[in-house]
Amino acid sequence: FTLEDIGDYLPGSVMLQDLSTATNLYMYQYGCEKLHHSSEELKALGPDYFSNFFPQDEIFVIRKELTCFLQQQDPDKIFPFYQRVKTGKDGSYEWYFTSSRIADEKGQRLIHIALPAAHLETALFHSQYLSPPNEYACKNYARYNALTKRERELITLIAEGRTSGYIAENLFLSIHTVNNHRKNIIRKLEINSLAELIRFAMAFGLL
Question: 120 vs 34, 50, 72, 114, 123, CA distance in Å?
Answer without folding.
Answer: 18, 24, 28, 11, 5
